[in-house]
Amino acid sequence: MPVPGMRGHRRSPVDRDPVHTNESPGAPRRMGRVCARADARLSYHKRRCTETAFGERDSGSHVGREVRCRIDAQRPRKTNRLRESMRGIRTASTGRLAGLAAMFVMGVGVALPSFAMDCAKAVQPIEKRICANPALRAADARLNAAYAGALKAAPDAAIRGMLVRSQRRWLDARNKRLDTDYEGHRLAVDEVRKAFDRRAAVLADRSGEGLIARALAERQWLAKYSGGPLAGFDANCDFIPDDASGAHVSYACFGAIHVQHHARVCSQSEDWATGAVYQYRLVSAADGGKVHPVAFCEAQGAHACDSGSAQAGWVRAATPGGESRTPAPVTGLPQLDAELWPLGDGGDAAWFDRCLTAPVFPDVH
Description:
The chain crosses the membrane at residues 97-116. By secondary structure, this protein is of the alpha+beta class. It folds into two domains: 1-90 and 225-365, no CATH class; 96-204, no CATH class. The chain has seven helices and eight strands, in the order ββααααααββββββα. The protein has a six-stranded antiparallel sheet. Strands 1-2 form a two-stranded antiparallel sheet.
């Protein structure tokens, strides 16, 4: 996926361009090259998948048989979120599994929602289905109560706003996926009810694994860096099939994390393609609200993207034919998103720290 606005963009070598150094505006300038981190937008890159024997529809959906993606020879890196509860796809952990079929009415800002569904105004097929089924109505009520409790438990407006965005995002996925599966077959009532109850459990969780605790941990981690207009989270969440049948689905979130420290932005994005999660990294130079991609890397197999060695797989943004899998960071992204936290098994946080604080990163020539 080409970087928007960067087609044909060429820069002087980064080792001779001070904008690529990790300097604060008032610091003495130091020559160096800054490594740019791979950033994904809401429309994250999904690889084209081909069906083993039966082809695929124009929409890209599966025809109900086993599918297989055209991927690199190396085995993709699976993050901790993939490892926790994997049934053939990357699913979220219990703390991430979300299946909401609750209808709430939200005004501008972070006002508390109205928790009762007005069935006379039901428009979406899934809303009508909820209204017509007592079991789903009961699950909807449990979910609404859990959501109200989460909003009341939020310690500040920023975390409350994050919860509101999370619920709106879930509703979008609900409307698209919880009535029928990817093939247009209606999901069983019990599968929909389970999705509601999983989401209610996530919203009601006040432990260290809950959304509020994860947001606080995320904020504490970000406080180590200067921040800036290009920092933020860009998540895309959906219900994805647990297996080739498509009869069971789980809610999962992917996307990009952009962290800014002075004049450098390091980004890590995750995409889901059938059966695996793919991770990309990008390092960019920040010039006010403008961004200049410097180098990108796909974390596959031996390509760990954690150094500047030849094995790391970094590609300079100005390299002819080079193509980043993720677009550059943009201004105005949310500053918290618990559904993209925690990071990986420890290596991801260490990578961010090296990328953001090293005098030069990556040191590729």
